[in-house]
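Renewal narrative, Specific Aim 1. Our central claim is that a sequence can be written position by position from structural information alone. The example that follows is taken directly from our test logs and has not been curated for this report. It begins with the C-alpha cells describing the chain, in the order in which they were read.
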C-alpha cells in the first residue's frame, strides 16, 4: 500500500510540475502575464533588474525551498526538492522548444490560470510544493487553517500588484483573470477523487422509523444529534446522514412516505472519506 502511495505521489509531482511549466513557458512568459506565482513575480520585476525572467524564477525556487524546509518540515523538504529540480529542468527544456500561440491576451491569461492551477493542485495533493510562491500559502495554511486555494488566490493577487508600476493597470487587470482561474482550478483538483454526496439533517417525531429504514433500504449510517427548538425549547433528536447524490431522491421519498411533515436541511459534501465512501459503491 505504501509503495502504491509513493508511486502515485511521484506521478502527481512529475505531471503537476510539467503542466505548471507548460503554463509558464507557453502562456505566462510569452504574453508577459502578471499571473502571480514565481512566473508572475518574474514578469513584474524583470523591467527593474537586468536579468531574465527565467533567472528570477530560479532564484525564487531556491529561496522558497529553504523557507519551506524551515517552516514545513523534513517530509515537505524531501518531496519539494523534487519540484525544485523538475521545475527548472522542465522550464529549460520547454523554452528550447517554443510554441507560438497567437490568441487574445485575456484568453491567454484564462488558460494560463487554468493550466497552472491544475499543475499546482496535483503537486499539493502529494503534500509537497512546486517550490515557488505557493510555499508562503502553505506556511500560512499551516498557521491559520484558511482554505489553501483561497490563500493561493490572495497571495497571487498581492503579487500582481507589483506589476502596476512596471507593466501598467491593463496588464494587472488581465493578470487577475489568471489569478481567479488558478484558485478555481486548484480547488477543483484538491477535492477531485472524492465522492459526490449530500449531507442531510432530518428532524421528525418519527425519527426512529426513519433511522431504521435509512439503514435497511439505503444501507447508509446515521447519527443522532440532540437538538432543542429555539422557539419552543422542546428537546427533539435530529438525524444526520450522508448519501450519494444519486441516493438523495430515494432518501427524500423514503422520509416523506414516513413523515410528510419532516424537516430537511440538505447541503453538498465536496469530499467524503471513510467506510462506504472510499471505494466503488453501488446501490
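The sequence written for that structure reads:
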Amino acid at each position: 500500500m505504501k509503495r502504491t502511495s509513493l508511486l502515485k505521489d511521484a506521478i502527481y509531482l512529475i505531471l503537476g510540475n510539467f503542466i505548471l511549466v507548460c503554463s509558464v513557458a507557453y502562456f505566462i512568459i510569452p504574453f508577459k502575464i502578471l499571473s502571480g506565482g514565481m512566473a508572475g513575480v518574474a514578469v513584474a520585476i524583470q523591467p527593474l533588474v537586468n536579468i531574465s525572467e527565467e533567472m528570477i524564477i530560479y532564484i525564487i525556487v531556491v529561496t522558497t525551498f529553504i523557507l519551506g524546509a524551515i517552516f514545513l518540515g523534513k517530509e515537505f523538504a524531501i518531496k519539494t526538492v523534487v519540484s525544485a529540480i523538475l521545475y527548472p529542468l522542465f522550464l529549460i527544456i520547454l523554452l528550447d522548444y517554443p510554441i507560438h500561440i497567437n490568441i487574445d491576451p485575456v484568453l491567454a491569461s484564462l488558460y494560463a490560470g487554468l493550466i497552472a492551477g491544475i499543475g499546482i493542485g496535483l503537486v499539493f495533493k502529494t503534500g509537497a510544493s512546486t517550490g515557488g510562491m505557493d510555499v508562503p500559502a502553505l506556511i500560512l495554511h499551516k498557521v491559520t487553517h484558511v482554505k489553501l486555494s483561497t490563500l493561493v488566490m490572495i497571495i497571487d493577487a498581492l503579487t500582481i500588484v507589483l506589476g502596476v508600476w512596471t507593466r501598467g493597470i491593463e496588464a494587472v487587470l488581465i493578470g487577475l483573470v489568471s489569478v481567479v482561474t488558478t484558485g478555481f482550478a486548484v480547488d477543483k483538483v484538491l477535492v477531485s477523487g472524492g465522492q459526490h454526496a449530500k449531507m442531510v439533517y432530518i428532524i421528525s417525531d418519527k425519527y426512529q422509523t426513519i433511522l431504521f429504514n435509512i439503514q435497511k433500504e439505503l444501507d447508509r449510517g446515521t447519527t443522532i444529534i440532540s437538538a432543542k427548538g429555539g422557539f419552543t425549547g422542546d428537546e427533539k433528536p435530529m438525524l444526520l446522514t450522508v448519501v450519494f447524490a444519486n441516493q438523495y431522491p430515494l432518501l427524500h421519498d423514503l422520509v416523506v412516505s414516513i413523515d410528510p411533515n419532516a424537516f430537511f436541511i440538505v447541503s453538498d459534501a465536496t469530499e467524503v472519506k471513510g467506510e462506504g465512501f472510499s471505494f466503488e459503491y453501488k446501490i
